Each structure stands twice: as structure tokens, then as C-alpha cells.
Amino acid sequence: MFKMTFFSNLKQKLIKTRNALTEGIKNIFSLYPKISEDVYNSLEEILIEADIGVSTTMYLIERLKEEVKKEGITEAEKLLPLLKKIMYEILTSKDSDINWEAPNPPHVTLIVGVNGTGKTTTAGKISALLVREGKKVILGAGDTFRAAAIEQLEVWSKRSGAELIKHKEGSDPAAVAYDAVDAGIARKVDNVIIDTAGRLHTKVNLMEELKKVCRVIKKRL
After folding, report:
1. Which of 40, 119, 122, 138 is most buried per CB count within 10 Å?
2. Fold type of domain 2-91
3. Tens digits of per-residue pLDDT, 95-148?
4. What is the 3-state secondary structure (H, E, C) of the chain?
């Protein structure tokens, strides 16, 4: 039941975000039929508001300008398929600056960030990617605070084929992290990915908790 509800809600939210982004871009083209700096500035604003990220947005705009100049495009409406093409190239690129291997396995990844940024989903997707590459992976359910976070990661564990290390809700996240790394060493896995609860950097107690998690991981490694 949880699995169906979670993925149904996720699908609906992604559709809503996609539609809002697409409609926003189309509105720009109706307002500015010809390509101009106003078009690029409006596109930049919409992409940033859609949480594409500042650096990625700037890269997309620069790539658009290069392609427009190269192909001699003047009509703004032709930017949308061009933007989709550039985004697709980025998402399907094999290049990556992330090294998922460690000299002495396991390679440990700690997923951190503020609330609602998709940390648990990211942990699950990374585990699925690594398992597909033939690696042995352990997921650590270190978000013991948010309701259903452990269950959500359990769904990802089953989908990806990664082993899940979890404690009960409200447990010490440092203990979960320690057990996940300990299990990773004992089972000779390649990667340990540990999810954590959302936190702001201004919350001193939560940042101290995160420091403790890092300390116990380093101690076990």
C-alpha cells in the first residue's frame, strides 16, 4: 500500500512540475516571438524557480546561445526542443566526476541536506545505479526522525536489490550509520549509502548530531 501511494504521489508531483515548467516556457515564447536577451533572462528565471539550480541553469542558457548562433535560429518557439535536447544530453552523459570506489572498500556516501530535497530518493536511485553496475550495496536508514522515511528506503532497497540496515523510528542515527558501515565491512560490499534526516545548518543540535554520525563512520573505517 505504501509503495503504491508513494510512487503515485511522486509521479503526480513530477507531472505537475513538468507541466508548470513547460507552460511557463511556452508563455515566454508567446510574449517574445523572436529570440532576444529578454527571452534568455525569462528562461533563466523560470529554470531557477523550477529548482534546476543556478550553475546548471547558466550552463543551459550558454549552451542554448551557442546552438542558436550555430543553427541560425531566430524564432523563440524553437528553443524548447533545443532545450530538451541539451537536457537529455546532460542526463544521458556517461561522464561523471564522482568516484564511487574506495582503495579499501566499502566506499561510504552520506546523503545530507535540508528537508524536502529528495535525499531518500537520491539514496535509493544511487543504490539502484550501483547495483546495476554489478556492485554490492548496503543502504543505511539514518533518517530515524521523519515518518515513513525508513519504509520509503525499504521500498528502494527491494527495488534496487541493495541490503537495508535499519533501526526503529527515533533511534540514534549514528548507531544506524555505524551498523551500516560495520555490515559493509563484514560482508565485503563495495558501497554503503547512508540516508540522513533533513536539517538546516543553523540548527546547532542537528549539526552536532551530523558530526557525531561522521565521527562514528570514520572510527569504524
Report:
1. 138
2. Four Helix Bundle (Hemerythrin (Met), subunit A) (1.20.120)
3. 656 778 888 999 999 999 888 888 999 999 999 999 999 999 999 999 999 888
4. CHHHHHHHHHHHHHHHHHHHHHHHHHHHHHHCCECCHHHHHHHHHHHHHCCCCHHHHHHHHHHHHHHHHHHCCCEHHHHHHHHHHHHHHHHCCCCCCCCCCCCCCCEEEEECCCCCCCHHHHHHHHHHHHHHCCCCEEEEEECCCCCCHHHHHHHHHHHHCCEEECCCCCCCHHHHHHHHHHHHHHCCCCEEEEEECCCCCCCHHHHHHHHHHHHHHHHHC
Total Cβ atoms within 10 A of residue 197:
19
Report field, pTM of the whole predicted structure over 0.70: no
Mean pLDDT of 42-62: 87
